[in-house]
Write a structure and sequence with these properties.
201 residues; 7 strands
């Protein structure tokens, strides 16, 4: 029986060739594992993105060391590099996810990650089950008796919210509020507060 998790990890990283990808049985277990890895890699890239220039330099350095006439050596080097890269990224993911989970709020149904350097919020729906189509959860920030609406929480999947300068000033040493509001009638202040706590950055 194939290891769906590791296979999905290789697929998400782009380590499989066309024939290997076509040979995969796209069973529900594999699809779920692939979705999870793609989500983790997105989180990692948001935290420590690899620029195109850096990626090109890595491949240039690899190609520079490959001898054109030694076909077997090329094949060996490429396979070795492929699995070495996989191991390296796995360790990076473990470290990154450990860091991310320090700011996670799983009891909410979402993980909320605040990246002040990029002025972004990265919100992932985890255990949240959206059943009320007429209402939605809304994210707010409160500081010094002032409350500012940030935006709607994702019902499924993930969402990136850009932080304005006003939001940024309030998030620092402010409080996070999540409320349950009517979609059709936006309110200026939270009404049904579901969660309120100091904002962890």
């Amino acid at each position: 029986m194939p290891d769906n998790n590791f296979l999905a990890f290789q697929y998400a990283l782009g380590l499989l060739n066309k024939q290997e990808r076509q040979a995969i049985e796209r069973a529900p277990a594999f699809e779920q594992a692939l979705k999870n890895w793609q989500l983790y890699l997105t989180k990692l890239n948001l935290k420590a993105p690899l620029s195109k220039q850096s990626a090109d330099q890595i491949w240039h350095n690899i190609n520079h060391q490959i001898k054109p006439k030694k076909v077997n050596i090329i094949h060996t080097l490429l396979n070795t590099w492929r699995y070495t890269l996989g191991a390296f990224v796995t360790l990076s993911l473990i470290f990154s996810l450990t860091f991310f989970n320090q700011n996670a709020t799983p009891q909410l149904g979402w993980d909320i990650h605040t990246n002040l350097s990029k002025k972004q919020l990265f919100i992932i729906s985890t255990t949240h089950k959206h059943t009320d189509e007429s209402n939605a959860y809304t994210l707010w920030v409160k500081k010094d008796n002032k409350i500012l609406r940030i935006g709607l929480m994702p019902e499924t999947g993930q969402k990136i919210i850009n932080i304005t300068p006003e939001m940024l000033a309030m998030i620092q040493d402010g409080e996070m509020i999540i409320s349950f509001e009517d979609k059709e009638n936006p309110v200026a202040l939270p009404t049904i507060i579901d969660y309120q706590h100091k904002w962890i950055t």
